[in-house]
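Section 3.1: Structural characterization of target chains.
Under the original work plan, the team committed to producing a structural model for every single-chain target entering the pipeline before any wet-lab resources were allocated. The record below documents one such target. The sequence was received from the expression subgroup and is listed exactly as submitted; it comprises 572 residues.
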Amino acid sequence: MKLSQGYWQTYKEIPNDAEVPSHQLLLRAGFIQKIAAGIYTYLPFALRVIKKIENIIREEHEKINAHEVQFSIMTPGDLWKETKRWDDMGPQMLKAKDRMNRDLCFSPTNEEAVSDLFRNTVSSYKQLPLNLYQINTKFRDEIRPRFGLLRGREFLMKDAYSFHLSKDCQDKVYDDFYRCYENIFRRCGLEFIIVEADAGAMADSSNKTHEFQVVADTGEDTIVYSSEIKYASNIEKAKTKRINLDFSNDQNLAEVETKGKSTCEDVAELLGVPLTHTLKTIMVTSIVEEEETHNMILILGDDEVNEVKLKSFLKADHIIPTKESVLSELGLVVGYMGPYQLKNSLNIIIDEAVDLSATYITGANKKDYHVKGFSLKELKYEKADLRLSQESDVAEDGKTPIKFRKGIEVGHIFQLGDKYTQSMNIKILDEKGSRQSPSMGCYGIGVTRTMAAAIEQCHDENGIIWPFSIAPFQVHFCLISKTDETKKIANDLYENIKQTGIEIIFDDRKMGPGFKFKDADLLGCPIRLTLGERDFNKTGKLEIKLRKDGDGVAVSPEEVIPALQKIISENK
C-alpha cells in the first residue's frame, strides 16, 4: 500500500482522556476514532491487526475441532430469564423492547444463546463433545469506560462453548482449550502468564478456571507468582502465607481511651505496638436470594480483606458494607467496632492469618475506646482465608517467596458445570438411554483487548513496537527523494517486494525525513526500509532497521528482498 493513496492520519497531541499508552497510541497513530464513551470506530490499520489476531485464533481453534458460528448481537430476553440472569446482570446489560414489546438485550456474553442452539440441534451423547465458537461484537454498559479498548463498552470478542457428558471429557476439552490459548498468545508474540482465577458469577468456583494475562506495567490485575515452584494466580484467588509475625500475649484485659483514633494504624501508633497486635473489624451484609446476613470479619490490622474470597466463602450473590443504621441496632460503633462484649449474635469469620492463641487490641464498641488483651477463644466463629496477599508473603508451602507483577487479562477459560443446562432444562440421551444434563465449558478472548494489550507491552516513547505476527505491515518503506529517477527505483523495488508476499507499506508522500521517520516509529511496523537519495547516490545502498532495537544494516537493492525474507523468517 502506498501512503499517498491511503486513508491514514496521525496526530501530535495526546488526547486529554487517554490515560494509558495503548489508548494514546491507538488514537495518535490513526488506528481508532472515538464515537462515544467506550465506543470506537476501527480504522484500516487497526482492522489489519484485528484480522491477523482473528486468523491466529481460527487456525488454533481448527486444530482442536472447534466449529465457528455467529450468534445475533441482539438476544431475546426470554432466554436470559430462563437462567435468571436477566436481572442479575444489572445495568451492564443494555436492554431494549421491539415493536411487539418483547424484551431484547445487546449480548454481553452468549451462554444462553449457545445453550438454546444446543437444545434445538443435539439430542444424543454420540454428538459430543461439541465445541462451538464465534468472533463477534459484544456490548457491556460499563459505568465508567476507560483506558480505550482495554475497558470499553463495545468490543470484539472470541467466545467458545463446549458440551460434554463426563468429567473426563470435560477435563480433556478444557486442556485442549488451555493449550490452544497458549499457542494463540505465543503466536501473537506476547509475554503472558497463565494464572489460577476466580470464576466470579460465571460458574461454580470449585470448577477449573484460568486467566491468560499479558504482562504490562499498566495492567489492572495483580499476578501473584513464583517461578521457583511454577505457581501463578490472580491476586483475587491467590493463597499465600505470612511468616515471622509479632503477636501479643498480653493477658490483662482492659479498656483504653483512644479518642479520635479510629484506625488500626492510629491505635497502634498511640499505644506503641506493631499493627499485628491489632484486629481490624469489617462488617458486611451478604445477600443470598434476597436474604440478608450480617457478618463480622476479623483480620490482622495490617491486612486487607479480599472481597472475591469473602463473597465466595459466603456463597453470596452480593456483599455490601453493612448500613450504619444496622450497625447502631447491633450495638456497634463505627471506628470502634470489635467482637468485645457483643450484644447480638453475629456470623463471625476470622482470617487464617490470625493466631488464636494470641491476644489483640480491638474496638470496645464504645466511642473513643478500644480494648487490649482480648482473646478470641471464647467466640463462636468460622476460620477462612480472606486476606489479600502481600508481597512480603510466601507460598502455601510456608517458605517459597512470591512476587507481584501487573497484567492485563486477555483470555479466560471456565468449566461451567451444568449451571446453564439445568436452568434451561436441557437434557440429552446418554449411553444407557437416560436423559442427562450435559456440562459446559466457556472460553473467551478479548480480540480488541489483545490488540491494546500488545501495545501496552510493546511500545516506547516514540510509538508502537508491533510483534511481527500481528503488525499491520511487516515493512515500512520510507523514500527520501526529490528526483524522478530515484523515485522510479524505489517504486520498482516496492512492486518487487510486494510480489514476494511481504506485507509492505510505502511512504511515498512529499514530506521530509523527520516527519516520515516519526510516523514510521508511531505506526510501529517491525522493519523500516529507507532509501535516502543522498546516501543511495554515494553508496548504492538502502538501510534496513529493526523497530524493536534500532539495529540497522546497509544493503544493495539486490540484497533487500533476501535480507527482508531472512529477518521475517527468523521472527515467525
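The chain is about 25% helix and 30% strand.
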